[in-house]
Amino acid sequence: xxxxxxxxxxxxxxxxxxxxxxxxxxxxxxxxxxxxxxxxxxxxxxxxxxxxxxxxxxxxxxxxxxxxxxxxxxxxxxxxxxxxxxxxxxxxxxxxxxxxxxxxxxxxxxxxxxxxxxxxxxxxxxxxxxxxxxxxxxxxxxxxxxxxxxxxxxxxxxxxxxxxxxxxxxxxxxxxxxxxxxxxxxxxxxxxxxxxxxxxxxxxxxxxxxxxxxxxxxxxxxxxxxxxxxxxxxxxxxxxxxxxxxxxxxxxxxxxxxxxxxxxxxxxxxxxxx
Length: 274
Known about the structure:
By secondary structure, the chain is of the alpha+beta class. It contains nine helices and nine strands.
C-alpha cells in the first residue's frame, strides 16, 4: 500500500468514527431528555404516516405532509429551542473519558451504606433533603454556583448538611464519585404538567435534574418523610427503604461489572462454574 492509500483509509475511518460519536452523544442525550424523546417520537410518527399515505395513495394527506416536512424543521427549532439548546449543552458537558472516578464494588457498597444511613435518619426525623449523584454528564453548571466541600461521603456529614436552620439545608448536595463535591446547589424545577401539584420544590427540582441529565436524584420529603428517587426523567415516589436501596444499587451499578475471585474472572450475569 502506498502512503496516499494509507492516508485515504485513515481519513475514512476517522470520518466514520466522528459521525458515530456524534450520533452516540445525540442519542444518549435524547434518551435522557423526556421532551426530546417526545420530539423524536413525533417525527417518527410523521414519517410512518407519510410512508402509509404513499402506499394507500392518500393524496391530501401526502400534500399536507409535504408542507409539514418543508416547514417542520424550522417550526421545531422555534418551538423547541430551549430543549434543543439543553441537548447541545448536555453534549458539551459530557465527559468523554467517563466519570472522574470509577468506583470499585467495595467503594460503591460503602457509599450506598453511608447514604442509606443518612436517608433513614432524615426519613425518621422528617428532615427534607435533596441528594444528586452525578454519572456521565457533568453537573458543573450547578457545582460552580454552589458551596464547595470536596469531602468524603459520610452519613453524619450528609445529615448535618440538611439539618434545619443550617446554612446549606435548603439547597441540594451533589456527589461525584466517592466525594461530596458541594452543597446548597439550586436546581431548575421540572415544568412537566403531569407532575402532581402535591409535590413540593425538592421533588420538582429532582425531576428537573433527571429530565435534563443522567444523574440520580434522591429526595426526602420534609412534610411526610417519604423517600423518592428521580432518574431517567421519571420520579419514583414514596419508596420503601428496601426498594430505595435496590433502585440506588441498580442505578449506580456499572453496565459491565467484573468480579475477581482469586484467579477466576467472571462478568455479571455469567455462571462462575461454567
